[in-house]
Amino acid sequence: MAKQVIHTEHAPAAIGTYSQAILVNDTLYLSGQIGLDPYSMEMVDGIEAQIRRVFDNLKAVCEAANSSLADFAKLNIFLTDLGHFQLVNQIMGEYFAQPYPARAAIEVKGLPRGALVEMDGVVCINR
User: Fold this and answer.
1) With 80 as the cut, is the pLDDT of residue 35 above it?
2) Could you give the C-alpha distances from 127 to 14, 89, 104, in angstroms and in order?
């Protein structure tokens, strides 16, 4: 089993002891992404902007592995307020098409850097 580190400058650099993603065979394991702008490393303002930035960051990491959001098998969503869940659904519909990935949405007390949303997931790459 060979592990390959996936990295792109089009998503925020890791701010800890982890990789943006790890590719094992045809499975891509993505670390959590928050609403950090990858170029300024500053948090974008507001829940809608953070949700969009998170999806853009996940997309960039997938593309670095020659994949896309269409290959997502499982998406995990962490929100500091589940009241934003409907907005996540609405915006997710702009980024994903059927068949949608399996998904979990969990309310958490806090996230790194004061983020309002974080997402991670598992991608099955069809080569």
Assistant:
1) yes
2) 27, 28, 26
